[in-house]
Amino acid sequence: MADTGASIDALQDIPAKPFLSRLIGIFIEPGETFEDIARKPTFIAPLVLLILVSFAVVETMVVKIGIQRIIMQSLALSGQAARMDSEQLNTVVQRSAAIYSKVMPITALLGPPIFLLIAAGFGILALNVFFAQRASFKQVFSVTCYANLPSIVGSVMAVVIMFLGDPDAFNPQNPAPTNPGYFMNPLTSSHAVLALASSLDVMVLWFLILLSIGLSRVSQNKVKTGSIFLTYLGVWVLWVIAKVGFAVLGG
Hints:
Order of helices and strands: HHHHHHHHHHH
Strand content: under 5%
Shape: elongated
Number of domains: 1
Largest sheet: none
Structural class: mainly alpha
Number of helices: 11
C-alpha cells in the first residue's frame, strides 16, 4: 500500500504537459493526453481558444456573407420568405438585422462555454451517479473542453467555404461539409430527412469518442470508454429523434 501511495504521489509531482503538446496529443494520442489532463486538469487555454474560433467564424460570416443575407437565407430555408411580399420581407430583414448584429457576437462568445458546461454536467452526473465514481468538476470540464478542440477543424472548413464559395449558396445553419445534410438541397429536401442527415455529423461523433476516452481516464479506467460512449450516444439519439420530430411537425 505504501508503494502504491508513493507512486501516486510521484505521478502528481510530474508537471503537466504544455497546452500545445496537449492540443497535438488530442489528435494523435488521445488516451495518453487525457491521462495527463485528468491528472493535472486545466481548461482556460482550450476554452479561450474555442471561444476565439467561434467568434472568428461569426465575424467572418458577418463580413463575407452579411447579416441581411444570413437573415434572408434563414427565412427562405424556414419557408417564411415565401409567405411574404417583397415589402414585408424587406421590413423583417431590416428589423432583424439590428437584433442579429448584437446577438450574433454574444452568441459566439457565450455559446461554446454554455454547450461545454451542459456536456460536462452530464459527464459529472454519469460518472458520479450512474457509474458510482468520483470525479471533480475541474477534471470533467477540462476533459470536455479538450475533447471539443477538433471542432476547430470544422470551423476552419466553414471559414474557407465562406471565403471561396458562393455567398448566396452559403447555409448558415449547416456551414461545413461534415455531415450528409450539407450536400442536400435544403429547399427541396424533406425537412425530416434533412434534420436527420444534418445530425449525422463527423464532428459530433469525434467529440463523443474523445469525451468518452477522457472521462474513462478520469475514472482511472474503472469505467470503460465504450460504456461512457453508449451513455452519451443514448442522449444524442434522443436529441436527434426530437429534432426530426420537430422537423416533421414544422414541415
